[in-house]
Specification:
401 residues, 7-stranded mixed beta sheet, single chain, alpha/beta, 13 helices, Aspartate Aminotransferase, domain 2
């Protein structure tokens, strides 16, 4: 490979949220990578940092143009740059859109298990979560269409937050599935906010379909959130884009983002974003190759050393979702035990809703040697967990949904 995805990088002294752990602990939880950011992005940030004054910046036309070109070339979605607005992060955008499109006290539909910040964006805005729980069978997730249709037709539902590709299951929704969601949403006057931050992290050979590109109805009823931060490992830069093909939704969303003071970029955000989308595609392609290698390393290890755990058949992200129903009925208890006994810090599925209580999420975006260390700790932790005999009475062991 041209780029370095094998060097171990010490992040313990750089105020890293991920690495704010005890000595000897290994964090494989929150979704940022332990690979060096693309050289072109680092050079752009260094160029900005060399300037003598760090003042306010405006968002130039080149920001929207770069995003429009990227999604058109890589994903087949032709976006009018006028439909694209800057926002200081995807999660702040979600919270703002909840406040704009869902009245206080109303329900916001989520497909669970799902990224935990969706829940906090809804609850902290004084709205309620309505779960359309994904069906799970034999390591595969699918949509419960009857339940989705019933809940989208509820009188107090005006907003749905979609995750495409899905975090934590790794599902890449098909064009037919997205079109079907759009038809149901439009029929019930429900706005769909589609978080597509993981879209450039599909496994090699797997394409994703933007929600708004799948059907005219999808473009009409949706607002899409994208960012360079996940795929290019610049989460701390706080840059994202809000894409609203519908002029009506664009105006309403823009008013809300402005109200919440979310459209001012920090000094580094614009240049870092431009360097990502204009200069770092070759780095991204090699990253995807390395992540595929890491997925295979995890799959082989589980098959050989931890056959009681089941890897869910995800097609995207660097956050594999692992079925632990054969050994526990409470993933929070399991992950706490593993961390205490081995120092490995992974996410319990419980934080992604009750549908995730017997699963764990593992961040494998790290050099292979670091991943091997983590997997060894995982195996040791599971061995000790089973040895203590605490998993005799299971409540989830044979459930298929």
């Amino acid at each position: 490979m041209t780029f370095d995805f094998t060097s171990l990088i010490d992040r313990r002294q750089d105020h890293s949220a991920k690495w704010d752990v005890l000595p000897g602990e290994l964090p494989m939880w929150v979704a940022d990578m332990d690979f060096a950011t693309a050289p072109a992005i680092r050079a752009a940030i260094e160029h900005c940092a060399a300037k003598p004054i760090f003042g306010y910046v405006h968002v130039p036309d080149s920001f929207a143009n770069a995003i429009s070109r990227w999604w058109g070339r890589r994903h087949g979605w032709v976006i009018d740059p006028a439909a694209i607005s800057f926002c200081a992060g995807v999660v702040p955008a979600i919270s703002s859109l909840v406040r704009t499109f869902a009245p206080i006290g109303s329900k916001v539909l989520l497909q669970t298990p799902v990224y935990n910040c969706f829940f906090t964006s809804v609850v902290n805005s004084e709205r309620q979560v309505l779960a359309n729980e994904l069906l799970y069978d034999a390591g595969v997730y699918r949509i419960d269409w009857d339940d989705l249709e019933a809940k989208l037709s509820a009188k107090d539902v005006s907003l749905m937050i979609l995750c495409n590709p899905q975090n934590p299951t790794g599902n890449v929704w098909t064009a037919d599935e997205l079109s079907r969601i759009a038809a149901l949403a439009c029929a019930n006057d429900v706005v769909v906010v589609s978080d597509e931050i993981h879209c450039d992290l599909t496994l090699p050979g797997v394409a994703y379909t933007p929600f708004a590109q799948a059907s005219p109805a999808g473009a009409d009823c949706s607002i899409t959130l994208v960012a360079p931060t996940k795929a290019f490992n610049i989460a701390g830069i706080q840059s994202s884009a809000v894409i609203a093909p519908s002029p009506r939704l664009r105006t309403l969303a823009g008013d809300g983002l402005n109200r919440d003071e979310l459209q001012e970029a920090n000094f580094f955000a614009i240049d870092a974003t431009l360097a990502a989308f204009n200069q770092s595609e070759d780095w991204l392609e090699e990253l995807r190759e390395q992540l595929a290698i890491n997925w295979s390393q995890l799959e082989d290890f589980l098959a050989a050393s931890l056959p009681t755990l089941r890897l869910v058949a995800g097609q995207a992200t660097y956050l594999p979702w692992v079925d632990c129903r054969a050994i526990c009925d409470d993933s929070a208890e399991l992950t706490d035990f593993i961390r205490q006994e081995t120092g490995l810090f992974i996410n319990p599925g419980t934080i992604y809703g009750s549908a995730g209580e017997c699963f764990v999420r593992i961040n494998i975006a790290c050099p292979p040697a670091q991943l091997a260390d983590g997997l060894t700790r995982l195996a040791r932790g599971v061995e000790l967990w089973l040895a203590r005999g605490s998993n005799q009475a299971l409540t989830c062991g044979n459930a298929d949904n």
